[in-house]
Each structure stands twice: as C-alpha cells, then as structure tokens.
Amino acid sequence: MNARTWRPVHSALALAFALLCPAAAAQALDDETAFDQPQPLEAAFGSLERDAGFLVDRTMTNFGAAFVREFAHAWRARALVEPVDLTITEKPSARWGSLIVVEHRNRPVARLFLLAGRSATIAPLAAETANYLSRRLADNALLDKLFKNPDLAPEELP
Fold first, then answer.
1. How many other C-beta atoms lie within 10 A of the C-beta of residue 25?
2. Tens-of-pLDDT digits for all 158 residues of the chain?
3. Does residue 51 contact residue 27 with C-beta atoms inside 8 Å?
4. CA 153, CA 145: separation in Å to the nearest integer?
5. Three-state secondary structure along the chain?
6. Nearest-5° angle of CA 94, CA 67, CA 64?
7. How far is CA 130 from CA 107, 109, 124, in A?
8. Measured in whole angstroms, how far is the alpha carbon of residue 154 from the centre of its chain?
C-alpha cells in the first residue's frame, strides 16, 4: 500500500472510532450504575464489619487460615457491645509450628502456638481464644473508664 491509498483508509478508521466512542462511553456508564447497585449478599451482610468490627487476616499457612476461620466464627457468634477491630498475625516455623498473635489497637492481646501437624487442636484453640479475648477486652474497657489521666493519650494506657 502506498501513501496515497493509506490516507483515506486511515481517515475512515479515525472517523469510525470517533463515532463509536460516545456509544462506548454511554455503555460504560450503564455498566457502572449497575455495578453500584447493592448485591443481595452485600445487602444481607453489608453492616457486618460495622456492627462487629474488622478481623484482619495476616496469616501465611493453611493452619493459620483455618485458625482465622474458626476464630472468626466463634468471635462473630459472641454478642458484642461495640465493634472491635483485631489483627491476627502468624509467624510460621517449619519445625515447630506457628506462633499466632492477636492484636487490638496495635498491641498484642493474645499469643498462642499452633503445633505443626496438629490440625485437630485448631478449632478448640480458636474458640477458647475468642472467649479469652472477649473477657480481656471487657476488662480493658472497664479499666479505661475507671482510670483517667489527662496527661496520657488512650493508646498510652497500660
């Protein structure tokens, strides 16, 4: 193809593209409005994190993920007065197992050890950890209300 025949083809393609772009933009706008509509699952569980708090999963192994699943199930089953945000971190070791650390307000609240190859102990440990944390966080909330020091910020309290 020489330069003289290329220009009309190029111009026709540019014109077709310019004519189709507004239609594509309108179709994209329709897709965005449909995307913004709440889905049935989101409508049913949309306020779960707002009501119960976030559980941040920072585990690396299957044992850690199983612990987080069982812990989340036990934690959500408990009646909480206010939402509590927790971070669950795992430090795995191939030889000994995994160290699980549960943090609240960037402070470790509970530490437990999952032995390597003992998956039957994960569910009872997760349920007991949820019970322990609910008692511990209630005690901490009570101490926060009893002990007020204007010189310390809330995150600096013991």
1. 10
2. 555 555 565 666 665 656 555 555 555 545 555 555 555 555 555 565 566 688 999 999 998 999 999 999 999 888 766 788 999 999 998 888 899 999 998 889 999 999 887 788 899 999 999 999 999 998 888 887 887 777 777 666 55
3. no
4. 13
5. CCHHHHHHHHHHHHHHHHHHHHHHHHHHHHHHHHHHCCCHHHHHHCCHHHHHCCEEEECCCHHHHHHHHHHHHHHHHCCCCCCCCEEEEEEEECCCEEEEEEEECCEEEEEEEEECCCHHHHHHHHHHHHHHHHHHHHHHHHHHHHCCCCCCCHHHCC
6. 30
7. 16, 11, 10
8. 24
Write down the residue that tokens 């009893």 correspond to. 146
Which single residue is written with the structure tokens 């193809």? 1
CB atoms within 10 A of CB 137: 18
Residue holding tokens 């299957």?
62
Distance separating alpha carbons of residues 123 and 128, to the nearest angstrom: 9
Report CA-CA distances (Å) from 34 to 20, 24, 25, 39: 21, 15, 14, 10
